[in-house]
Each structure stands twice: as C-alpha cells, then as structure tokens.
Amino acid sequence: MKIFSRFKSALEFNYILVATVPFVIIGFLILTTMTRNLEKEITNDQLILSRSLAREVEQFLYEPLHLLGQIEEVLERKGLISDWQINSYLDSIMVHYPFLR
C-alpha cells in the first residue's frame, strides 16, 4: 500500500504540474505581449501629445517673434525716423501688445 500511496502522490503532483505549467507559460506570454503593446501605445500617445504641444508653442510664439522682427526693421532705419517717433512707436506697441511688457 505504501508504494501505491507514493505512486498516487507522484501522479497527483505530475498532474498538477502538467496542468499549471501551460497556464503559467501562457500567462507570461500574454503579459509580455500586453506590456509591449502598452509601451508602444504610450509612446505613440506621448509622441502625438508632444507634437501637438510643439505646434501650440509655435503658434503662441509666432506673433511676438513677428512683431519683434518688425521692431528690428524700424530700429535699423533709425536715420529715417526721429528718436521721439521711435519712442512713440515703441510706446504704442507696449500698449497694444501686453505680452512684451
């Protein structure tokens, strides 16, 4: 009977091992695949977000940069415009464009 008991225990252990190992392997493969897919999705979402943010920053800075370019052109022609006209021009810009203050 002792041999039968050990044989029965060995069969039970092997049965449990054979039944659980495939589940563990399949679970590990699914986890690995889902992790890779999730990382790719997060990377794509971050790329889309960063490009969108870059466009927003570019649009936000376009007007001030364009205005500063115009101011530069006016100041380079200093001989054509008197100092008080330049000051008046700069004062009007400061009034109309508060983001330059």
Explain what the structure shows:
With 101 residues, this protein is mostly helical. The protein has one domain. It contains 2 helices and no strands. The protein has helices at 2-76, 83-96. The longest helix has 75 residues, at 2-76. The chain is rod-shaped and about 115 Å long.
Q: Rg, please?
A: 37 Å
The helix/strand class is mainly alpha
- Taking the alpha carbons of the first and last residues, their distance comes to 97 Å
Tell the overall outline: rod-shaped
The number of helices is 2
| Binned strand content | under 5%
- In quaternary terms, these chains amount to single chain
Number of domains: 1
Can you count the beta strands?
A: 0
- Overall average pLDDT: 87
Please provide a brief summary of the model.
The chain has 101 residues and is an all-alpha fold.
List the SSEs and their pairings.
Layout: H1 2-76, H2 83-96
